[in-house]
Amino acid sequence: MELNILVLLFPVLLYFVIKLLDKKTSTKPSITIFMLKLILIVSSLILYIGNIGWLYRPFTKQLKVKVYDADTKKPLSCAHIRFSWLYETGTAGGLQSGPYKSINLRTDSNGEFTVPSQLKPISFYAIPLIIGRYSGELVSVFQHKYWSFAETYDGKISDIYLESLKSEEDEFNMLKSIAGASHNVSAKSSKCKDMSDDEITFLEDDFARLETEYPNSPLFEDVILVMISMYNACENKTAVTDMENKIVAKFPNGKYSRAIMYRINRSAR
Prior knowledge:
CATH architecture of the largest domain: Sandwich
CATH topology of the largest domain: Immunoglobulin-like
Order of helices and strands: HHHEEEEEEEEHHHHH
Helix content: 40-55%
CATH superfamily of the largest domain: Carboxypeptidase-like, regulatory domain
Radius of gyration: 26 Å
CATH class of the largest domain: Mainly Beta
Distance between the termini: 58 Å
Number of domains: 3
Strand content: 15-25%
Structural class: alpha+beta
């Protein structure tokens, strides 16, 4: 918020600097003052004309959204919500959108969650067509025994309906997709910057639930590998070791288990 205000006040501050320099210089205008006036005009055009919408409505609306079971149409309580405000950057030839702020919420007993009003970031337009602008919202919903949901919006968000998981394979595929692709765990440099503690807890709880419901499922091997990748991205060595012990215990003849045992035996020499 402070940065938004400071950037928009830049032309105003520059104007007073020019007025002050005008008083201290002779009647003949200097090249410095001329250049400052040029900067003032250009910066005013870029900031104020490019942010007419922001000046008219600088805050997003407070949102109330409900989450339902798609089959029974009953509200889902305690669903995990990740709500992100998006900012788009790049050039006219290639734009990339990503979150500039995210919050984690839960649905109440009526399946409802409330998103607070948020100050929008200001937009930037410059030459050669460098763009930075507010581009909407991303809503991600996670609930045990349901397919996850992720959708982008532009200020108008409708109620959300989650499809229930129908099989053991669905259960494992859902956990893999959340722990894997949804959080970009392949990039170790991210250090879990795209994951909150709440989301990691959700994944760990779902993993524990599957261990109880399907203790001998052969589908566990792929899930454990994805969890190991996730913990590696988070640089959580203790959790990685725990998961490696699980995969060796459950799948002693598996390719990954043999690699782990080979590494352990080699280090013990």
